[in-house]
Structures are given as structure tokens and as C-alpha cells.
Design a protein that fits this description.
By secondary structure, this protein is mostly helical. Helix content is 64%, strand content 5%. It has 16 helices and 3 strands. It has a 3-stranded mixed sheet, with helices on both faces. Helix 2 (18-40) crosses helix 13 (309-327) and helix 10 (243-259) packs antiparallel against helix 11. The radius of gyration is 21 Å and the shape is globular.
């Protein structure tokens, strides 16, 4: 076999852990569902959301969290009081910078304007020493589901046992939980009589992001390759691409005209799809392009470190979050999701066990046998 095909198979072996092996069919189904949902919606992004003041935003956040679980509300209020949850307007920037420096050190300039949960970790075992939930307000209704999203990250770590190795366990399911509850927050906004158009724009913006990252960061192709490797044992020039792959590339190529206008899709990622499309009749060139994508930004020679596994774990987590938010978003699922949130870093549960709790068809109480 050509040497580059050996490299590709080695890369897939590195990524092919128990979670992927146990859930590959579900992951491919979820990924395909995200694409179908994206195609069926108006996928142009909208940033013109209704204005809402900070006090009302906080009031709505507390109401939403109370409807899920009072412990979430207590965590949120305590975080605000302890200055660990920072929800701020531009006039508060100077105070926020001081808090960032205290919690995270001097290297905060590149993240202070980003919504997110940020932690300082120990060097060798990724244990949390200090953390902040940061959210610079846009003062629109879009702030509400996104703050809920970040709070679920904060709560699953800061309100639980910090003495736990975070990766890779945390990354597979953390975005699933956050995306699920952010969409439940959108359901709350429907009840507050905001227009359907505005709420659907928030939801569709999330599916747009998941679809574009999956396709253009390469998760779609990685999952297909792993599925083939399971079936064929080895990826070869004869099985690296089939008619389904070709049809999928044609669909992506049709989307390019709509997607190139958005700045969050890096030109290199668009080039990746264009190069694959041009190489569909040359399995060796197709293989080389996929290897380059899996190895991107890696300036090392060790094969075991070529693939950025954390990036792909997070993309998988986003995919599962989007998928379950469409097929299981209701009050009956809230308890399952909350259970997973509370046990996300509990070593007694594997990722597959937690995922099965969400995906189990039986009533919630019947599946909690541990």
C-alpha cells in the first residue's frame, strides 16, 4: 500500500477510541441530520435582534435556570456575587480587566472580548486552579441562550469535583449539554412573546455554525473515514471514496456560494473542500489532502500527535448537541441532561454510559440503575 495510505490509517487508529467505536452509527446519523436541518432552514445569519437591558437579561436567566433546577440558579447567583461569573457592559470594562488578571493571570487580552468559560489549569494534569465565566453583553435577546450555554460549562465544573482529569472525557459531552440547554432557553423566549423570526434566527445560527465547522474543519470526512475503516479494516485506494462521498462533496460545493461571504469560515477550510472536489478521481491525491487536513497546524514529526483530537472531540460534542436538541428537546429530557451535567466529570460514568442515558427510550427513572 502507498505510504500515505499507511499514514492515514495510523491517524485514524489514533482517533479511534472506545467512544467513537461504540457510537459511530449515532455520530454519522447526527452529522447527517445537522446537514439536513441546515439545508431546510434560512441559513443566513442575522445580528439585528431586539434590545434588552442587563437587569432584564439577568432576570430571565434566573427564571430559566429555576425552571430547570434550583441548584443551577444558586450556582449562578453565587458566581455573580463571587465575581466568578462576569456579565458586563462596556462601561464596566476596567473592573473586568482587573478580575481577569486576578483569576487568569496577565494573558487575557485575546479572550476578554469573547463569551466563554475560561480556566487556569495545572500544567501536567489539567486540573482547574481558577476560572471565570466571561460574557460581554450585546444587550440583545441572543445574550440569554448564550449565557445559559456558558453557565452549563461553568456549573458542570465549578459546582462539581474539580479534582478530575478533564480531557478527553469532558470534551465529548460538554458542548452537548450546553447546546441543549441554550435551545431550551430559546423555548422560554417563545413564551415571552418574542417573534418567531427572532428565535428561529438564534436557533438557525447555531445549526449554521455546527454544519460549517463539521464540513469545513473536516469532521464529516473523519467520521466517514472511520466508518470505512471499521468496515474494511484498512483505508485503501479502492475504498477511500465512493458514490456517497462524491454526492456529499457536490452538495458542499453548491453551498460554497452562500458560505464564502462569512468571515468565520477560514479560506483554508474552503480551499480544503475545493481541493477534495477536484481530486475525486484521484484516490492518492484525495488521501494526501485528507492527511494534510488532519495534520494541520502540527509542526512535529511524531505520528501519534498529528491529529488534534481535542478539536474533533469538541466538534463531535457540538454535533450531538445539535442533534439531540432537534429530536429530544422537551421537559422530559431535561432531567436526563441535568443528570449528565452533574456527572460529566464523575469517573464512575463513561462518556458512552452518559450518552446512553440521554438516548435511552425508557423512562428516566428506569435507566438510573447505578
Amino acid at each position: 500500500m502507498d505510504n500515505n495510505f499507511k499514514i492515514l490509517n495510523n491517524l485514524l487508529d489514533i482517533f479511534f477510541d472506545d467512544f467513537i467505536k461504540d457510537n459511530i452509527d449515532l455520530l454519522i446519523t447526527a452529522n447527517n441530520q445537522i446537514e439536513k436541518y441546515y439545508i431546510s432552514t434560512n441559513n443566513k445569519k442575522n445580528n439585528n435582534y431586539p434590545y434588552i437591558d442587563k437587569d432584564t437579561i439577568l432576570l430571565y436567566i434566573i427564571e430559566i435556570l429555576n425552571n430547570i433546577d434550583k441548584n443551577l440558579t444558586d450556582s449562578f447567583i453565587q458566581g455573580l456575587n463571587n465575581k466568578k461569573i462576569l456579565i458586563w457592559e462596556e462601561k464596566e470594562r476596567q473592573d473586568i480587566e482587573l478580575l481577569f488578571k486576578r483569576e487568569l493571570g496577565n494573558k487575557y487580552d485575546d479572550i476578554i472580548n469573547q463569551p466563554g468559560y475560561f480556566a487556569r489549569l495545572t500544567q501536567y494534569d489539567n486540573k482547574i486552579t481558577s476560572s471565570i465565566l466571561n460574557y460581554p453583553l450585546t444587550n440583545t435577546i441572543k445574550d440569554i441562550p448564550l449565557i445559559i450555554h456558558e453557565h452549563m460549562h461553568y456549573y458542570s465544573l465549578d459546582s462539581n469535583n474539580k479534582e478530575c482529569h478533564l480531557y478527553p472525557k469532558y470534551t465529548y459531552l460538554s458542548e452537548l449539554i450546553s447546546i441543549y440547554f441554550e435551545t431550551r432557553a430559546c423555548d422560554y423566549l417563545f413564551q415571552k412573546n418574542y417573534t418567531n423570526k427572532d428565535i428561529y434566527n438564534i436557533l438557525n445560527s447555531r445549526y449554521y455554525d455546527i454544519f460549517t465547522y463539521n464540513a469545513f474543519e473536516g469532521l464529516t470526512f473523519l467520521l466517514n473515514l472511520i466508518s470505512k475503516k471499521i468496515s474494511y479494516k484498512e483505508i485503501t485506494p479502492q475504498n477511500i471514496i465512493n458514490n456517497n462521498d462524491i454526492e456529499g462533496l457536490k452538495r458542499l460545493k453548491r453551498h460554497l456560494g452562500n458560505l464564502e461571504q462569512y468571515s468565520n469560515i477560514h479560506l483554508d477550510n474552503i480551499l480544503f473542500i475545493k481541493q477534495l472536489f477536484k481530486s475525486i478521481n484521484n484516490p492518492y491525491e484525495y488521501c494526501d489532502i485528507l492527511i494534510t487536513k488532519l495534520q494541520e497546524d502540527k509542526k512535529i514529526t511524531s505520528t501519534s500527535e498529528y491529529i488534534d483530537t481535542n478539536k474533533y472531540r469538541e466538534l463531535i460534542s457540538y454535533t450531538l448537541g445539535g442533534y439531540f436538541s432537534t429530536i429530544k428537546r422537551n421537559t422530559k429530557t431535561d432531567n436526563r441532561m441535568l443528570f449528565v451535567t452533574n456527572n460529566l466529570i464523575n469517573p464512575e460514568y463513561s462518556n458512552t454510559e452518559l450518552l446512553s442515558i440521554i438516548n435511552n427510550p425508557y423512562p428516566y427513572k428506569k435507566i438510573l440503575t447505578k
